[in-house]
Specification:
With 339 residues, the chain is an alpha/beta fold. It contains 10 helices and 12 strands.
Length: 339
């Protein structure tokens, strides 16, 4: 009997601010079920590559460190208000006028990420080199105007990213324009030293990083499409409707305190990626080289939850959405992973 070929399993997690609570809940329920059916296998061992953008980068790195997904649900519950305080607290009077650099400071988020990641690494802030699963994290480099995908050292060409502190990488990918300032950080450790300047949210080009995972597996690691199985988790799809009577709005409408323009960009990018993947699957199927793929997404309709929501009722709704997706999809995910 011919031995069944082992699949290359990719987990992809969208960006979406506080809406990361949705995939966190799905992953928590999935982890619980997998532990019941396969108790000797750790959760991160079910995936060969994890791709995450923005809030998805936080989840991707956390899972790669072996942090239980249930703890990540608690992370969002406990820290939402610290990360996203009331927007008006960011308006600081200066010389008789309000100066706003960004809606929020990134200090609370940076501190919390460092604490949580270090706790999973024997109290030492981990580097990308310390992760237990290969990752790809999209980030836009504002210093040179180039898109970056920060990666573990899973290819001979990757000679720098593994030196970076994991919490700095997560914060770089999560530094959404308007919400947070661009993130600049220095690093120095046994592997080397350097500086990254003005890193911002990778969601502006890959809010749904599924395609990055497919390209990494095929172009860099040499797998065929048919070798791949891809699980893609969304953070809720909004419906941004511009009325017929629309008139040009001022900067406050588009950017503050609810950055509608960025929300539209992130949602649109995630949606077009789904269409790109559907197109690739059709082409691959014609060549008998199709891959296994499951997209888990929730349609929020016009009742979109803001990326910076932090009220208890919003968190409860997000968790309920995750619970509903788990009910409908966890068995399908397990089937995908066991195929």
């Amino acid at each position: 009997m011919t031995e069944k070929k082992k699949k290359f399993t990719i987990l992809s997690i969208d960006g979406g601010g506080i809406r990361g609570l949705i995939p966190a809940k799905v992953l928590s329920d999935l982890e619980r079920e997998l532990k019941r059916t396969d108790p000797d296998k750790k959760f991160h061992e079910h995936f060969n590559l994890i791709c995450g953008t923005s809030t998805g980068a936080i989840l991707a790195i956390a899972i790669s460190l072996g942090i239980p997904a249930g703890d990540l649900v608690e992370f969002y519950r406990e820290n939402a208000k610290a990360i996203f305080p009331k927007w008006y607290l960011r308006i600081i009077p200066r010389k008789s006028r309000a100066i706003i650099t960004s809606i929020y400071s990134n200090k609370s988020l940076r501190k919390k990420l460092e604490e949580v990641f270090a706790a999973a690494n024997n109290g030492i802030p981990p580097l990308i080199n310390d992760l237990k699963t290969n990752i790809c994290i999209p980030v836009f480099n504002g210093n040179d105007g180039q898109i970056n995908v920060l990666k573990t050292k899973h290819h001979e060409e990757y000679i720098r990213d593994y030196k970076l502190p994991a919490h700095e990488v997560a914060l770089s990918s999560a530094s959404a324009p308007v919400y947070f300032p661009p993130h600049t950080f220095r690093f120095s450790n046994e592997h080397g030293s350097g500086i990254n300047v003005n890193m911002i949210d990778g969601g502006i080009f890959a809010n749904n990083p599924s395609l990055i995972g497919i390209l990494e597996a095929t172009e860099k690691l040499g797998y065929e499409f048919s070798d791949i199985r891809l699980l893609s988790l969304g953070t809720g799809k909004g419906r941004h409707v511009i009325k017929t009577g629309w008139k040009p709005k001022d900067i406050w409408y588009w950017l503050f305190p609810q950055p509608r323009l960025l929300d539209i960009i992130l949602d649109s990018q995630a949606q077009i990626t789904e269409q790109y993947i559907a197109f690739i699957k059709r082409i691959a199927a014609r060549q008998n080289n199709d891959f296994d793929y499951l997209r888990v997404q929730y349609d929020l309709g016009g009742d979109t939850i803001d990326l910076n929501a932090s009220e208890k009722k919003d968190l409860q709704r997000l968790e309920a959405i995750g619970d509903e997706l788990s009910k409908n999809y966890v068995h399908k995910i397990i089937t995908l992973l066991k195929n």
